[in-house]
Each structure stands twice: as structure tokens, then as C-alpha cells.
Amino acid sequence: MNNNNKNGPKLKLSTYRQLLERKAEEVRGSMSAQKAAQVVARLDVPSDEGDLSQQHHEEWIFLNRNTIDMKLLREIADALRRIDSGAYGDCMECEEPISTKRLDAVPWARYCVTCQEAVALRIESGEYANEFQETR
Fold it and tell me: pTM here?
């Protein structure tokens, strides 16, 4: 990325770092709150099959939310590593600068909008998988 771009993301690295760190704390806090709510709501001995079914459903929801939150935490950690290495703000596909507008909206973005759309299509068609993609 061109460091001479006066409006580019490289000049806002400390701001992006703060945004990423706050988001990570928010996600971790949410995960803790979800876990606490699940434990509190859980019946020690379900009284019937309906209660047992409800309990299993709630556990399934919790696990899915947890998986999404863990994925986001990995993406945030990766973005923080890119800040440390000097690669933050560069698209990992085309190596062009990611727009400041996109980084303001999604500070953990790995791709510019054009490449993100192309990657999403490849993932959808099953021809591309990355370390942050969930298996179906």
C-alpha cells in the first residue's frame, strides 16, 4: 500500500487498532454472557422430553453463536497481526488498498469490496475455502 496516501488507512492505524480491540472485548463479553445465561437457564433434570428437546435446541443455538463469535475473533486477531506486520489495509487477493470507507465499516476486512464479492462467489460455488470459512 502506498504510505504517501494522506487519506489512506495507514494514517489511521491506531484508530483501527482501538476499534478492533474494542470489538474483540465486546465479542468476548457477549460470549461470556451467553454462556452464563445458558448455565442459569439449564434445568438440572429435564422433567420431560419437551424440556430435554428445548435444552438441546438452546445448546445448538449457543454453539452456533459461539462458532460465529470465534470466527470473528480470529478475523480480528488476524487484522491486528496485519497492523503489526504493516500489511493492514491491503487486499489479500489483489494487494490493492482497501478503501477507508470499507475499513471504517468492517475494520477486520481482508479484501476490497470487489475481491470480497469474488471470494464469496467462489466460496458459494465450493471452489474456494479460507481459514476463516466455516465448513457446512
Answer: 0.70
